[in-house]
Amino acid sequence: MNLKLMALAVDVPQATTHQNLLGTVASQTYKHLFDEAGAFSRPSTVRRGITRMHTDNYQAPAWPAETRNSAQASSVVGLLAQALPQAMAKVEAILHTQCTLDQQILGSTCLRLQQEHAMQARLTQTIGQNGTAGIAMAMQLARVLGEQAGANGLTLISASDKWMAPFYRRVPDVVTYGDAAAACLVQADLAGTGLQDGALAVIEDLVWHEAPLHEGPWAEPAAIVNTRLVEWAATQVRQVMAAMPEARRKHAVLMGDAYSQALSEQVAEQAGWSGELRLASDAGQSTGVHLSSASPLVALADLVDLATQRGHDIDAVIWTASLSGHAAAMRVRCSATARRIPQGWVSVGPADNAPYCQ
Asked: Are residues 79 and 136 part of one domain?
């Protein structure tokens, strides 16, 4: 069963200069991780009490130290609520994913989203333990929920991350993470209408894989980590390609997490990709800055924008691969008729040119 995207919004803060390999330092945050009991919850190479590991200047999007991760998730969902208040009233499930911790360790982001935006939702869940690839699992679960909810029910999916010490924001020669948030409203395509009824995009296929446990990336040579990432991503892309009609495949666009241009090119080569390769720099994003759990939705927003610019629907494959060993690929068809909203897109009905899910 396909999933129709009815609305999508992203929030990426401005890039700032950093000299710390670890994330933003905030007073009194994650104190438990510096106790003896927290030793197994922080990176093995970060000693107790360490909040700074000096490095050369680099750029990455980051929210202020006092800003909570859950607040940014709520803010980006608020963009959807402002654009489509009637659609938010139809949300039956809320799925949130993040790989970083919130500053309020006992806080629940998914319950905050329900409290502030969709009190009528019958299910709220935060999806963790997937590294930065949690969106794929959220989409898989949304498929199941969509079958149960019927044609009118909507699922709200959100992703947000804020990188804070003692966790690494930057792993040299592998990845630089940026703070980011994104959210979308999805609906089961029970009738199989695809883009015909005004959806801004349709997820036609999705594959997901979890690799065996391995050493953390901070304890292994960068070359080994990069090779592993390429293998994981390329395998998922090949699997999605195998089920894609040849006529559509050769004109499709491939886009994935922004590790480095070289890594993206290697994924395309190993997967045998013959279509167009789109890099983060093509989308106006910072080269080599991975936008964390929100990355696949940010890529999707860019591909919808690309379709509207070109004036025709486009086929695309979006891949994501986490250092934790989780990887996925989605085959998506993006509409050229989506309507722009501040920081995102909404679906447009074919007949009256109005937002479909209102």
From this structure: yes
Question: What digits encode the pLDDT tens for the residues 156-168?
Answer: 999 999 999 989 9
What local confidence, expressed as pLDDT, does residue 354 receive?
43
Collapsing DSSP to helix, strand or coil, 293 comes out as helix
SS3 for 165-229 is CCCECEECCCEEECCEEEEEEEEECCCCCCCCCCCCEEEEEEEEEECCCCCCHHHCCHHHHHHHH
Regarding whether 16 and 152 lie in a shared domain, the answer is yes
Which of these, 223, 216, 237, 219, lies nearest to 323 by C-alpha position? 216
Residue range(s) defining the domain that contains residue 229: 203-346
Last residue of a domain, one of 165, 188, 211: 188
* 59 token code pair: 């750029």
| Confidence at 350, pLDDT banded by 50, 70, 90 | very low
Structural tokens at position 203: 């997820």
Question: What residue has token string 């333990």?
Answer: 129
Query: What local confidence, expressed as pLDDT, does residue 195 receive?
Result: 87
- Among residues 199, 190, 104, the alpha carbon closest in space to that of 153 is found at 190
d(CA 48, CA 244): 50
